[in-house]
């Protein structure tokens, strides 16, 4: 739709700014006949840019606003430099439609569609550590981009699949970061495809689904939101995905079979009491159980920081050793953060017993 030559009120101007950045129009001038205080506002246009379409907003490199007045005629000019051009946007739109058509069926639940979108981006994008590629186009054409490009691509694919999606901006320990909120059957969840990627800039190693469909409290364990003036508020993500999944399974939802498998795939099962080890004495009991059942591999959720877990594990193993007959048995362990409990100081502890 062609941009108008003039606008008469704030709502019309807001819509025009959104249309301009979505279409990646580089510059446009509007004659403004609305209230003078809107025309003279130094911050209004920035707020209108921030309030626009999430994907388009993340495609902006910089913008400039110029105002001019001749008698009673007010003109507002918005000039935008884009990281992703109109032609590049069209490439991504076409690729997104083709990807969705290829990997989805109409009969799929939204749960499965979101998983496929997440997995496609994680599998096909690499993090650009040079930080010169910023967009979904860079990821689609060149195979690498930064977090904003990952989040944009999730947005494009969700849009093609008819799934509600927002791009979230915030801060992590290393600086600014971007990820997504996705809507599944009316409920919002956080999703960070960048940090689920094995090639990401995450501060420590993570599993492919550590940042998949988390609540606000779970996601904010290692980050904070950044809400610029004018930006639409982010929807709340307060319902744990495991509760949604368990309820649908109990109701024998059409996606129940898929969801049962998904609980194992993305680690939801570790929220269940059977997988929780609360302290080092419980760790002793668990190690003895693993030994007497002759298990070679066991993963539990341990409620402590990584350093505390190391200390508790050493104590527990020294306590267990005198109680077992096989003096040659050794324990090998690895751990990684577990965010779904909503606490930064929780780990998944992977223990393997090796008999000599």
Task: Tell me about this structure.
This protein has 3 domains: 6-82, Ribosomal Protein S8, Chain: A, domain 1 (2-Layer Sandwich), CATH 3.30.1370; 86-254, C8orf32 fold (Roll); 272-354, Alba-like domain (Translation Initiation Factor IF3, 2-Layer Sandwich), CATH 3.30.110.20. The protein contains 14 helices and 15 strands. Helix 5 (86-103) packs across helix 8 and helix 13 packs across helix 14. A hairpin with a 2-residue loop joins strand 8 (175-184) and strand 9. By secondary structure, the chain is of the alpha+beta class. The protein has a 5-stranded antiparallel beta sheet. Strands 1-2-4-3 form a 4-stranded mixed beta sheet. The model has no long low-confidence stretch (mean pLDDT 90). It is elongated, with a radius of gyration of 25 Å. 40% of the residues lie in helices and 24% in strands.
List keywords for this structure.
3 domains, 356 residues, single chain, Ribosomal Protein S8, Chain: A, domain 1, 5-stranded antiparallel sheet, alpha+beta
Amount of helix = 25-40%
- CATH C-level class of the largest domain: Alpha Beta
Major β-sheet, in short?
A: 5 strands, antiparallel
Residue fraction in strands: 15-25%
What's the total helix number?
14
The CATH topology annotation of the largest domain reads as C8orf32 fold
Shape designation: elongated
Question: What number of structural domains do the residues give?
Answer: 3
Instruction: Report how far the terminal alpha carbons are from each other.
Output: 73 Å
Can you give the mean pLDDT? 90
**Secondary-structure arrangement, i.e. CATH architecture of the largest domain:** Roll
**Could you spell the SSE succession in H and E letters?**
EHEHHHEEHHEHEHEEEHEHEHHEHEHEE
Write out the strand line-up for the largest beta sheet, numbering strands in chain order. Answer: 10-9-8-7-11
Uncertain runs are none
Class per helix and strand makeup: alpha+beta
| Rg calculated over all Cα atoms | 25 Å
DSSP E strands, number:
15
């Amino acid at each position: 739709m062609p941009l108008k030559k003039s606008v008469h009120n704030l709502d019309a101007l807001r819509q025009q700014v959104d249309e301009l950045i979505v279409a990646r129009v580089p510059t446009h001038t509007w004659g403004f006949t609305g209230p003078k205080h809107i025309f003279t506002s130094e911050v209004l246009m920035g707020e209108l840019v921030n309030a626009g379409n999430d994907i388009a907003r993340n495609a902006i490199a910089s913008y400039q606003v110029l105002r001019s007045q001749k008698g009673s005629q007010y003109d507002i000019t918005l000039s935008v430099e884009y990281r992703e051009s109109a032609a590049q946007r069209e490439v991504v739109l076409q690729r997104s439609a083709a990807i969705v058509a290829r990997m989805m069926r109409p009969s799929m639940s939204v749960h499965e569609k979101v998983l496929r979108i997440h997995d496609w981006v994680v599998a096909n994008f690499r993090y650009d550590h040079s930080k010169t590629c910023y967009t979904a186009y860079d990821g689609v054409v060149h195979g690498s981009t930064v977090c904003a490009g990952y989040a944009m691509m999730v947005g494009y694919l969700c849009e093609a699949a008819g799934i509600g999606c927002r791009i979230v901006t915030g801060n992590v320990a290393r600086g600014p970061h971007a990820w997504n909120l996705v809507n599944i059957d009316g409920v919002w969840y956080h999703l960070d495809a960048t940090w689920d990627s094995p090639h990401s800039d995450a501060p420590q190693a993570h599993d492919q689904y550590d940042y998949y469909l988390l609540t606000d409290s779970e996601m904010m364990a290692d980050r904070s939101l950044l809400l610029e003036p004018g930006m639409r508020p982010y929807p709340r993500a307060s319902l744990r995905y495991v509760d949604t999944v368990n309820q649908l399974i109990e109701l024998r939802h059409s996606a129940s079979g898929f969801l049962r498998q998904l609980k194992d795939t993305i680690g939801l099962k570790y929220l269940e009491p059977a997988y929780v080890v609360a302290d080092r004495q419980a760790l002793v009991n668990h190690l003895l159980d693993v030994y007497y059942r002759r298990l070679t591999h066991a993963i539990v959720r341990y409620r402590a920081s990584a350093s505390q877990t190391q200390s508790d594990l050493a104590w527990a193993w020294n306590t267990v050793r005198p109680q077992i007959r096989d003096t040659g048995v050794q324990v090998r362990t690895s751990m990684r953060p577990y965010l779904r409990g909503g606490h930064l100081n929780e780990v998944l502890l992977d223990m393997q017993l090796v008999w000599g």
